[in-house]
Design brief:
The chain has five helices and seven strands; from the N terminus they run E-H-H-H-E-E-E-H-E-H-E-E. Strand 2 and strand 3 form a beta hairpin. 26% of the residues are buried. The protein is of the alpha+beta class. Bound molecules: coenzyme A.
Length: 163
Amino acid sequence: MGQTLPKPGLRPFLPDDVPLLAAIFTASIEQLTGDDYSEAQQQAWMEAAEDEAFGKRLAADLTLIATLEGSPVGFASLRGADHIRMLYVHPAVSGQGIATLLVDALEKLAGGRGATSLSVDASDTAQGFFAKRGYTAQQRNSITINDEWLANTTMKKTLGAPQ
Ligand SMILES: CC(C)(COP(=O)(O)OP(=O)(O)OC[C@H]1O[C@@H](n2cnc3c(N)ncnc32)[C@H](O)[C@@H]1OP(=O)(O)O)[C@@H](O)C(=O)NCCC(=O)NCCS
């Protein structure tokens, strides 16, 4: 007989969550993005969690936390009405629909804020996930994080449109 997986939950971000979210961010980059980014790029990206601005950004944006049996396992944030700023899932639970739960919720919240479309600067790792949800590539970007250049792709989805 198969084991039933615990059902994930969602809750809003609290300031005390910052250290745990920084740990999820770091583990996710370290273990999930190695096929798409060099070790130096991953290192520079992970170091963003050591900056005080990391927690400030989570608090300033609308940040949602996905939990499994009460413990945070992933998070996502919405900037303004129409831009997904962060989406990170712990590697131990990747492929279990956690990002889907988070982005489903952000798309509803964006619609509630009056957005007609939603954009994201998707990492090369996340591009396939967003493409599957109906987001289309708009432009390729090069950004610098801690003196390393990283590429990402601005993707956009019209809300309410069939996927
Ligand atoms: C991208 C990421 C958020 C996906 O999280 P996840 O919880 O594993 O995603 P889900 O389980 O909800 O996946 C939903 C679907 O997308 C697919 N998918 C997930 N990641 C994918 C990828 N990299 N490429 C193609 N498809 C992908 C899954 O196979 C699944 O398909 P299914 O419904 O047919 O089974 C996670 O891999 C991650 O944190 N990556 C590293 C950090 C990162 O790059 N963040 C994005 C910054 S913009």
